[in-house]
Specification:
46% of the residues lie in helices and 22% in strands. The longest helix has 58 residues. 24% of the residues are buried.
């Protein structure tokens, strides 16, 4: 009986629940298919809109604008100029494409819509005149059929001065499989196919999967395999064409999904029925056993009490027991049905919660309004964007609540248009309006209205996107576009072949130097520099001297696009200032040398006095011998030889003095550093003896070749030696030792060390030692060490000082020495 009851319940409930589940599934499936079709069409229309933006950006490219302004465009032509797989000069090097889609033709039309410049991907005949005749009179896009194939035609006007002829850029893009796939690239679904449908003949024009849905197939041939949703394209389609956007979903996939759901529910019902049968049978068995024992007891009592036998069923009346359990059984069945209903309601609520989460996570504000524009529902993005809570927006007029007073009329006209025409089921074109948030701040928004056709009324979904960031980015791009042209310094762009593709107005002196115009090729030397810069990939700086100006040119490579930017900087005044600084430094060094010679006048007089006195003595001796008639010829010749030697010595002293004091031009010559130190030591010989200073030499063996300005380095060493002798005047006479030493530090550097035994330099003086006009002497100018430091710095050398209080000071002059320098005789 339990199995029989379970089977009856199964036979009754299974078809009822299966039919109810099927109806729920079909309703939910229809809603999902409609939503998927709307989403696919919305993505397709957004992709068409992106091509409009691409055409506008290409039309505003500076190459095309400059070309239209050029005299070459103004000239009349009998035939259009064509380019086959070769980019025109007015087109940017990067390909014009969105994803994998590229235009088959890019046409530049004149004011009469005659083709002037044509760029082909393939050399195939094409009805350009027919395509050009569809021009709507302004920027826009058009979806139409040419040669029974769908094409997207996009026009954009080229910016030009008023007095020149206008130019119109036309892009011709085939709406083929690649285009449809690229428009739906955000969704990957192998079982869904989108296609363009010729509405009158119900014929496929193009599809995203030619292996499943081929061109020229009739719609009736596909209904057995697909669930088809077709929607009109009103924003871009030509008025004489009935082109529809269709979405195909595989019936096998839908039926398989429905079968899986029904099988799952049927399995659950079967398991529930088995459980009910088992429980029912167990309860029936237990009750039967209890009743059987009770009847046996009653019969036994009757026999003992009344002495009569009453018939007792050993198994009991099963029909009566089953009849008693039927209400309970149906109660359990009703409970199972209720549980199934609750589970389905929970699934529906979860589905609604998922849809609500998707709407709240959308980047656009989504608001649902009724026919009068009153807010019915809104998502979380709208609350975050405008600062109003959901309760504050419900029941309010959307136009009054959000939009600028000057834009409310446009929004109202859009709703009125849909209310007046029940045939309009497509989303409106994006409308740019001004909106206010809860704080009263104005923001630009892009608004799209999508009607929702219900059974008794029509609602509208309003998509509102905040485009403040996009507006700021557009303004930034516009400002950057004028940055190079407004730059007061030269800015040029040169490609790998050395062609000047761009030059701003400040580049005129450079172009005049090269005798070039923009779009011409640089001279060979500069082409090689551009090529080397691209290959090495590093920034290079070159100085260019013109007739009147001197420029520092910075070559910056952009290897990915294979061009080099040349940034120029006028350094004429800088170089003139450096030349004047060097001249002033030379004059100041000359003044210091004259001042030094004034301080050394006594020593120089004594040094000249010795050879002059010797000349007088030898000459007087010769005169006396000749007058007395004594002495032989050999003695007179020897005396005359001594006179010659002393005269040459005096001349050498005068020569050194003139070279030291003379105001000569700076000239670097190859000298032996040891000889230089010996010569300077001879200058201070008299002063050293007068001041009681013991001068000692410790020179490197083999010579130290350096290429220096001889006079300037002598001045530096002379200043350092004189400062050392002055410092040692504070020490005992027998402890005044000046050590002049030379050494090779490494293969490219030599040094002269000047060490004294003076009292040392205090730390507070050490910090200002090389500052101009700082001196510890009462009569000093404070320029000796400053000039010395500058001279050594100009020789790419350095001066280092170490001092210890009470023990003395060491000055180290380090100079560069090329290992290739060779001294004569060494």
């Amino acid at each position: 009986m339990g199995l029989l009851c379970g089977l009856i319940v199964w036979l009754v409930l299974d078809p009822l629940q299966s039919r109810a589940l099927g109806e729920i599934f079909q309703k939910e499936l229809q809603q999902q298919l409609e939503q998927r079709a709307r989403d696919s069409r919305h993505r397709f229309q957004q992709y068409l809109g992106q091509w409009r933006l691409t055409a506008t950006g290409l039309a505003q490219n500076w190459r095309l604008v400059e070309y239209v302004k050029s005299p070459a465009w103004a000239q009349e032509r009998e035939k259009p100029k064509t380019y086959l797989n070769r980019l025109p000069a007015w087109m940017a090097p990067a390909p014009v494409s969105l994803g994998a889609v590229t235009p088959s033709q890019i046409v530049l039309l004149d004011q009469d819509l005659e083709p002037r410049e044509i760029f082909h991907r393939q050399d195939l005949p094409f009805p350009l005149e027919r395509a050009a005749s569809r021009y709507p009179g302004g920027d826009g896009a058009l979806l139409t059929t040419l040669w029974k194939a769908p094409f997207l035609l996009v026009w954009a006007g080229v910016a030009q001065p008023v007095e020149s002829k206008a130019a119109i850029l036309m892009l011709i893009i085939p709406l083929d499989t690649i285009f449809l796939l690229d428009s739906q690239q955000a969704v990957a679904d192998d079982e869904t196919v989108v296609a363009l449908l010729e509405g009158d003949q119900q014929r496929i024009l193009a599809s995203s999967d030619q292996t499943k849905v081929t061109a020229n197939m009739l719609l009736e041939q596909l209904r057995s395999r697909y669930l088809i949703t077709s929607q009109s394209i009103t924003d871009f389609a030509d008025w004489d064409q009935n082109v529809q956007f269709s979405t195909f979903v595989s019936r096998k996939r839908v039926e398989a999904t429905a079968e899986r759901i029904l099988s799952t529910e049927r399995r659950e019902r079967f398991l529930g029925a088995l459980a009910f049968v088992g429980v029912f049978s167990l309860l029936f068995f237990l009750v039967s056993m209890r009743l059987h024992r009770l009847l046996n007891r009653i019969a036994s009592f009757g026999r003992r009490a009344l002495g009569i036998n009453q018939p007792v069923s050993e198994k009991g009346n099963q029909l009566l027991l089953l009849e008693a359990w039927i209400p309970d059984f149906f109660a359990l069945v009703s409970e199972a049905v209720e549980q199934a209903r609750l589970r389905h309601e929970l699934q529906i609520r979860e589905s609604e919660a998922l849809k609500s989460a998707l709407l709240d996570s959308s980047l656009d504000s989504i608001v649902t309004v009724d026919c009068s524009g009153m807010v019915v529902e809104t998502n979380g993005t709208a609350e975050r964007t405008f600062g109003y809570t959901r309760e504050q927006m419900l029941g309010e007029s959307l136009g009054v609540k959000l939009f600028h007073p000057d834009d409310r009329q446009q929004f109202g006209k859009l709703l009125q248009r849909y209310n007046q025409s029940a045939e309009l089921v497509a989303a409106s074109a994006p409308l740019q309006l001004r909106a206010f948030d809860a704080q009263g701040d104005e923001m630009p928004v892009e608004t799209v209205v999508m009607p929702i056709l219900l059974e008794h009324t029509t609602l509208f979904t309003v998509y509102i996107r905040d485009i403040s960031a996009r507006r700021r980015a557009e303004r930034e791009i516009e400002s950057l576009a004028t940055f190079a042209s407004d730059n007061p310094s030269p800015v040029l762009r040169v490609n790998r072949r050395g062609v000047i593709t761009y030059a701003n107005a400040a580049s005129a002196p450079l172009l005049a130097y090269w005798s070039l115009e923009p779009q011409q090729t640089l001279p060979l030397y500069w082409r090689n520099l551009v090529l080397e810069t691209l290959e090495e990939g590093g920034v290079r700086e070159i100085e260019l001297s013109g007739d009147e100006q001197i420029f520092s040119l910075l070559l910056a490579p952009f290897s990915e696009q294979e061009y080099v930017h040349i940034y120029g900087r006028d350094i004429t005044q800088v170089r003139n200032a450096e030349q004047q600084s060097r001249q002033h430094q030379s004059e100041l060094v000359h003044v210091c040398r004259v001042s030094t010679m004034g301080e050394m006048a006594t020593g120089l007089a004594h040094e000249l006095n010795q050879p002059l006195a010797a000349i007088v003595n030898f000459a007087s001796g010769c005169v006396r011998r000749l007058q007395a008639g004594i002495g032989g010829e050999a003695e007179l010749v020897d005396a005359m030889a001594q006179i010659t030697v002393q005269a040459e010595r005096a001349g050498e002293i005068i020569k050194r003095l003139r070279s030291l004091v003379g105001k000569n031009a700076s000239e670097h010559t190859l000298v032996n550093l040891n000889d230089l130190v010996i010569e300077v030591a001879s200058f201070i010989e008299y002063d050293a003896a007068k001041k009681g200073v013991d001068v000692r030499l410790a020179l490197e063996q083999g010579g130290l070749p350096v290429r220096v300005d001889l006079v300037q380095i002598e001045q530096v060493l002379l200043n350092l030696m004189r400062n050392a002798m002055d410092a040692m005047q504070q020490t005992e006479a027998d402890q005044r030792i000046l050590v002049l030493s030379t050494s090779r530090l490494n293969v490219r550097e030599v040094a002269v060390m000047i060490s004294d035994t003076g009292p040392g330099i205090p730390p507070e003086v050490m910090e200002k030692l090389f500052d101009p006009f700082f001196s510890t002497k009462q009569s000093g100018m404070g320029m000796g060490l400053a000039i010395s430091y500058r001279i050594i710095e100009d020789h790419n050398g350095s001066i280092r000082v170490t001092s210890e209080k009470g023990k003395g000071t060491l000055f180290s002059v380090q100079l560069p020495s090329n290992p290739d320098l060779k001294l004569p005789g060494l």
